[in-house]
Write the structure tokens for this entry.
Amino acid sequence: MKILLTIHHYLDPDSGAPGSVLKLGQAYESLGHEVSYYAFDHLPKWAQKLSEEVVFPACLASHLLKHADRYDVVDASTGDAWLWGQLRSQRSPLLVTRSHGLEHIVHLQYLEEVNRGKQRRSWKYPLYRGGFHLWEVAQSLRCADLAFLLNQLDLKYAVDTLRLDPDHAFVTHNGIPDNFLNRPLDPLEDTATTPVKIAQIGTYIARKGIQYSVPALNAILARHPQVKLTLLGTDCPVEQVLADFAPDLGDRIQVIPRFDHQQLPNLLSDHHIKLFTPLAEGFGKVLVEAMALGLAPVTTAASGPLEIVTADHDALVVPIGNSQAIEQALERLICDRSLLNTIRRQAYNTAQGFGWSTLAQQRLNLYQMALNQRSRPQ
């Protein structure tokens, strides 16, 4: 198949959704398919001087009006292809809308945080992100031949509220690189003085729940001098992060604003606990990656993580937005090395099923099913 993957971001291999798209494309190519991309990198110069996300659907539609015959499948992230969906003909390539976390779920969680007084509502938010863009996302899902959602909650909302055809909607997971799989896993020594290292990976923003994780981490670090913390991929200055922690804890905290994704196994090689506290999350690729590298997860009960882990089997799951519960879960793992090693091993085993090669083939099978249905006489 000839597949076009689109996403309204720059194609940065070390970032979340764009990195997933590139890995998906590489997996398709390894399975013998031809892959092209259309992202901010491919916009005309005039569009790059404007709001790229706003003009992206029009630019993609213009590209496809000229070049649609190059592709068998156009697989677009949510909001990208709603205009093309209105313009295309019956002979056009199969159109797939792919979600990296349903924007409507994120929107509802954002409003809840605003109502709780935990986040300030920007006056700009309803103009696009909380308004027109939600309409774009819904339209792109409805006009697609196939819709891929990352978790069951997103799928249910898309069918029940956005009126998506349930016969065209499927849950498909993101994967992790095959070289993250089947790596050695050594148990942590069962002594109270052995250092324990916690990793929190992701942008240092409210949607990732930092307003709830930081108080818990301050308390844990103050109580347990053998515990260290690494914050990876914060995408903000080190000083900004350290300012949220007690000054006397700074020598046990490492902040790495950006990192080469290929180096993640090395960066996490001596870590034991993965803290993941999002308010809303479509999936949680970094969660699976950390599990594959032998870290025991403490995660909130967001829809994405619940698609991956089972509470008290391969993770400790805490309510969303609850600092005390986060602190208590970390305390359990730090104080019970047997439990920590058990959760690490179970998490490691779970993660082995999330290789990109397997998950990419599942998506290809759905493409082929939809193409076969289109070719049947009506």
Summary: The chain has a mean pLDDT of 94.
